[in-house]
């Protein structure tokens, strides 16, 4: 088993807390709803290598404005020297 400790922005933690709260409401009184940490472990454990690579690539393309795979090459913010033509 590998253990990690990472800083997590407050707004990200709030998403997991809200999901846990909603699951508690949905499952009803006395049900064992997952806490925020369990939800995070579930999300991390359910990712394949391909999922992780795709999500990281997608995030980087969004940050840089690079075109997405299988889409026309339209840069939102062309790299220096590239006019997009």
Would you spell out the secondary-structure blueprint of this structure?
Elements: H1 10-27, H2 36-45, H3 49-64
Q: What is the count of DSSP helices, taking H or I runs of 4+ residues?
A: 3
SS class: mainly alpha
Radius of gyration, CA atoms, in whole angstroms = 19 Å
Our measurement of the CA-to-CA distance between the termini, rounded to an integer number of angstroms, reads 50 Å
Task: Say how many strands there are.
Answer: 0
Fraction of residues in helix:
40-55%
Low-confidence stretches: none
The outline comes out as: elongated
On the 0 to 100 scale, the average pLDDT is 83
Largest sheet: none
Order of helices and strands: HHH
Strand content: under 5%
For this entry, give a set of tags.
about 80 residues; mainly alpha; about 0% strand
Could you please describe the fold and organization of this structure?
With 85 residues, the chain is mainly alpha-helical. The chain has a domain at 33-67. The protein has three helices and no strands. The protein has helices at residues 10-27, 36-45, 49-64. Helix 1 crosses helix 2 (36-45). The longest helix has 18 residues, at 10-27. The protein is elongated and about 55 Å long. 0% of the residues are buried. The mean pLDDT is 83.
């Amino acid at each position: 088993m590998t253990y990690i400790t990472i800083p997590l922005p407050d707004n990200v933690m709030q998403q997991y807390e809200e999901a846990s709260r909603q699951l508690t409401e949905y499952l009803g009184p006395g049900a064992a709803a997952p806490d925020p940490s369990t939800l995070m472990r579930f999300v991390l454990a359910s990712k394949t290598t391909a999922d992780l690579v795709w999500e990281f690539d997608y995030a980087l393309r969004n940050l840089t404005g690079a075109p997405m795979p299988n889409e026309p090459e339209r840069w939102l913010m062309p790299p220096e020297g590239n006019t997009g033509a």
